[in-house]
Every structure is written in C-alpha cells, then in structure tokens.
Specification:
The chain has helices spanning about 5-10, 15-35, 50-70, 80-95, 115-135, 140-160, 165-180, 185-205, 210-220, 230-240, 250-255, 265-300, 305-330, 345-365; strands at about 100, 105-110, 110-115. The protein is mainly alpha-helical and about 375 residues long. It has one domain. A three-stranded antiparallel beta sheet has the order 1-2-3, covered by helices on one side. Helix 4 (about 80-95) packs parallel to helix 6 (about 140-160). The mean pLDDT is about 85.
Length: about 375
C-alpha cells in the first residue's frame, strides 16, 4: 500500500530525526565498546557487534515503513492473536530458551537469537490499550480484567528470572491505566497493595542473586569485588569522564576491561566516560525530545486507542531510561534493562523502532478527515 501524500504531511519529522540521531549514537558507541574485542572473546572482526546492530537497525526501519502503510486501528482486529501468540512465545522460552546471566530470555531460530520479552512489551501496550479503549474505568470488574490481562505475561517473565522486564510491565500498566482515566483511589489502592506485597516478593519470589542486587544498591561497597563490582566500575567510568570526557574511543574502563557489560547494560557509562557530563546531558536531552513528541502524539490522537498506545510507548522509553541511567550511576538496582536505541541488542532495538513506528502512525492519522 502506498501512503497518501496527505498522510505524509503529518509525519513527525522531528521525532524521526531524534530517533535516527539516537540510533546513530548507539552504533558509534557499540563500536567503541566492542571494536578491540576486550571482554567479547577477542573477536577477529572489530565490526562484528556493529554489523549486528546495524542489521537490526535496518530490519527495524523496514518494520516501521510497513507499519506506516496500515491504519493502526487494524491491529485491534488481531488483538487476540497478538496476545496469545505472545503468551505462547514466552512459554516457549521457558521450555527451550537459552539461559544468560541467570535468566532464560533467549530463543534461537536458526542462526538468529531473539529475545521475545522485548517484543512482548510492545504487544502488551497494544493489547492492553485495546482492552482499556472499551473499558469503563469506573468499573472494578473492567479494572480487574485489565490487571489479569497483564498478570499472565508478567508472571511468565518472572518465571524466566527476568525481573527487569516484569518491572517494565508493571510501570507501563500503571501509566496506561492512569491515562485511561483510572480513579485516583483505585490507583492508590494498587500502589498500596504492591507496597505491602513487596517484602513477600523480596524474600519468597526473588532468586538469591536478585536479592543481592537490591541489597548492593543500598551499599555497593559492602561487596566491592562481587555484587557491587559492576556499579562501582560504572560510577568510576562516569566520574572519570569529567565535564568534557576523555574523547571518543578512549574509555580506559572499557579498554582495560574493568567495566562489565559495557556494550549492553552499561553503555551509558561508556558515553559518560568518553563524552563527559556534556555528552550525557545531550543524550538525555534527545530522550526528553522523543518523550515529548510521543506525548504530543498521544494528546493529538483521534481516538482513545491511539492515545493509550502512544502514552504506553512514552512510558516504555521513560521507564527504561530512568532505570538504566539510574543503575549506571548507582541510583537504581542493577536489573539488566537495556538503554533504548543505544544498548547493543537486536531484539531491543527492533522493538523500540517498532514502538516508534506506531507513534508515527498514530500521529500521522491524528485527523479523521484530511484535506
């Protein structure tokens, strides 16, 4: 299907430019963190991770272009297929998935390894928004059905030991419920129940290493060579960058292999060390611009479903940025959540690009009648 020119005039080129710039920054720093092979099995090809990330970017862009050609409301017709297909993939991960860093998150499909939980975030936004678009937010039954809708995929990712994704699910749910018009007393009741249940979850629902990560957040220096090592090295990297940074490709924490997961979870630490405070603030400013355009798309959406989807995407990006950047600076527990558009990881990058594709689609069709 070819896009109508009247629709193309409504494309948010500011959002497109901001996302492309962020993806470009991500490619540069994936290369910076991996080109010498340190910590990655001494790769023979210095562009190996860069090529994988670039391939994921290209696939993501193709997905965005396909998404733009269809009216986003057509997704609602496939909501049952999306929801139960998503559940089936998450179950499949539990049955035959690969274990990485204590969590079973990965599926191998031929030569390709994918992380279904990344796409599950987008599916949850779409299906929950579809449910709430027709729900009565004054009805306790409709609210209960919405919570059950989210509980099943959240429980499955918890069984995968993927606490970070479960936290993202909860955050997105609360944001979308709020935008959908949930009564404040109901929102406070859910928060209160969560607060009361948190000690039970901590002692009975978490693995030993997950509890250790939370305790390390309180005092990382209690175990500086063990559970606190990642956070300590990350804060050293960011602090050593100073105001202007050490310069591109000059991160000593990466070159000397002190900083773990520097191409994935801790890529913001590499940015802070190489570009300094100014570079870190610039990256956060671009994120702020992306969030603003997503919220503007939500505000201008022609229907409730579009409004909720755009708001859900904004909450997805915001939660990831807050947790990941906070984690690198010792302000949040280490949870293994990637930084959108920047962290090395094809599944994450493609999922985030697809999410932006839906926001562009919603904004492009914000008017019921175009002249």
């Amino acid at each position: 299907m070819i896009l109508d020119r009247r629709l193309l005039r409504n494309l948010d080129f500011v959002l497109i430019a901001a996302v492309l710039v962020m993806c470009g920054i991500g490619l540069v720093f994936v290369y910076s963190a991996t080109h010498d092979g340190v910590g990655h099995g001494q790769l023979t090809d210095p562009f190996s991770y860069f090529k994988r990330q670039l391939a994921a970017f290209c696939v993501g862009i193709v997905c965005v272009m396909v998404i733009l050609t269809i009216d986003y409301n057509l997704v609602r017709r496939a909501h049952l297929f999306l929801y139960w297909g998503n559940i089936a993939l998450l179950v499949l991960v539990l049955l035959v998935g690969r274990r990485v860093s204590g969590a079973e998150r990965w599926l191998r499909i031929g030569p390709v390894v994918v992380q279904p939980s990344e796409m599950a975030k987008i599916v949850m936004i779409l299906t929950l928004s579809n449910h709430l678009a027709e729900a009565d937010m004054n009805s306790r039954y409709d609210l209960l059905m919405a919570l059950i809708h989210v509980a099943l995929p959240t429980g499955l990712v918890l069984l995968q030991n993927d606490l970070g994704t479960a936290i993202v699910f909860v955050g997105i749910t609360m944001a979308v419920l709020f935008v959908a018009g949930m009564r404040p007393k109901d929102l406070l009741a859910i928060v209160g129940i969560g607060a009361l249940a948190s000690p039970i979850v901590f002692f009975l629902g978490l693995k030993d290493y997950q509890r250790a990560r939370i305790l390390t957040f309180i005092n990382p220096h209690a175990d500086p060579t063990g559970t606190g090592y990642n956070v300590i090295q990350s804060t050293i990297a960011i602090g050593s960058g100073g105001f202007f940074g050490k310069g591109l490709f000059r991160s000593t924490q990466v070159r000397l292999n002190f900083l773990p997961a520097h191409h994935t979870d801790f890529i913001f630490s590499v940015i802070g060390e190489e570009l300094g405070f100014l570079g870190g603030v610039a990256v956060l400013a671009i994120y702020a611009l992306i969030l603003l355009r997503c919220l503007q798309a939500a505000s201008a959406a022609k229907d409730v479903f579009g409004q909720l989807v755009a708001a859900g995407v904004a909450s997805l990006i915001l939660i990831h940025v807050l947790i990941n950047v906070g984690m690198t600076m010792g302000l949040m527990p280490v949870t293994g959540i990637p930084l959108p558009f920047l962290s090395c990881g094809g599944s994450s990058l493609m999922a985030n690009l697809i999410a932006i594709g839906f926001v562009l689609n919603i904004n492009m069709r914000r008017q019921k009648i175009l002249f």
